[in-house]
Amino acid sequence: MEFTVTFKYNSDSFLSFPNFLLKNCKTLKAMLANKNKKNPEAIHLVCNCMSAKVCNTHQKQMEQKHFTIPTKGTEVYMELEQILYLEAKGHYTNVYLKDGTKILSTKTLGYFAINLPQNDFRRCHNTYIINITHITEHFMGRSGYFVMDNKQTIPLASRRKIEFADIIGL
Predict the structure, then answer these.
(1) According to the 3-state scheme, what is the secondary structure of 43-66?
(2) Cβ-based neighbours of 122, under 8 Å, separated by 6 or more
(3) What's the whole-number mean pLDDT along residues 41-60?
């Protein structure tokens, strides 16, 4: 699984977790913070169950063709290929589509970062997630950016350049 974090649990054990799970799972963080006070076998069991759940979720995301975008009072169901990019606006997110439509979602960008399939959608900046299938141009200089199908320029954070260089194949 990509983006896995592995660290030493004790003198002879290592634990591996997907990076987004470590960021978003309060139970796991609490257990790892108190690792010497807990039963190591119980921690390994929980970690194995969580890893299996994450693998199943990741597999479902890769097969996913549609996505439901929560909006104020309703939900918009659409094909993933219609989404060009997403932009954070405070606690809301603007979703930009191929046909030029903009949908205001009531969810944060973090929600989309977790729930959209990572094989097509990547966070390139603190305020943007892009659909990498809709990149027409890219510039990896000092202040990198992407040009999307709709000619919109999306910034690339310097800390994410190596990740995108691997994805794009530079």
Answers:
(1) HHHHHHHHHHHHHHHHHHHHHCCE
(2) 129, 130, 132, 163, 164, 167
(3) 49
Strand bridging mode 135-139 / 128-131:
unpaired
Exposed, middle or buried by CB within 10 Å (0-12, 13-18, 19+), for 56? exposed
What predicted TM-score, i.e. pTM, was given to this entire model? 0.63
Angle at 63 between CA 45 and CA 145, to 5 degrees: 100
Confidence of residue 63 (pLDDT cuts 50, 70, 90): low
Cβ within 8 Å of residue 113, ≥6 positions away: 20, 121, 123, 129
Whether residue 79 has pLDDT greater than 70: yes
**Cα–Cα distance measured from residue 9 to residue 62, given in angstroms and rounded to the nearest whole number:** 30
Nearest in space to 57 (alpha carbons), one of 131, 120, 129, 1 = 1
- Give pLDDT, residue 170: 54
Distance CA(165)–CA(50), nearest Å, equals: 30
- Rounded to an integer, the average pLDDT of 87-97 is 96
Helices 40-63, 26-33: axis angle to 10 degrees equals: 150
